[in-house]
Amino acid sequence: MKSLIIFVFCAAAVAHKIPITPKDAEKFLPECILESGLDPAILSKRNITAREPTPRQESCVFACVDKKTGVMKENGKYDDQFVFHSYLRNHQINPDTWRTNFYETVRACERYVGKDACKLAACVRRMPRYYWT
């Protein structure tokens, strides 16, 4: 249960590949936890009775946060223009290299998980960092 919260924050903070900050994730996390069918008690640091999320619920939290921050469109596709411009605004990296790596990452995940937005979001967030930079 606590592992999901920690993972979401770490994924947002460490994987600076997507233009989302830990503060963004924190803002949408309660809403996304409810939408994903998770026990809201999971957010309580003192509650040890909340059920562990299923892999599906955990993946859907990622998709929900991505959609609410504008990274993913409602149809489950990544908004590459938003991601591209937001990311490059905050990082010194060759735009062509970054764009190619981003597209390859998303395509690899789409081949692996299909059109499922939840699985896609989880795959992209868990992709090793060297695919992005």
From TrEMBL:
It comes from Encarsia formosa (Whitefly parasite). Keywords: Signal. The keyword Signal applies. It comes from the Eukaryota. Residues 1-15 form the signal peptide. This is Odorant-binding protein 14. GO terms for molecular function: odorant binding. Gene3D superfamilies: Pheromone/general odorant binding protein domain. Pfam families: PBP_GOBP.
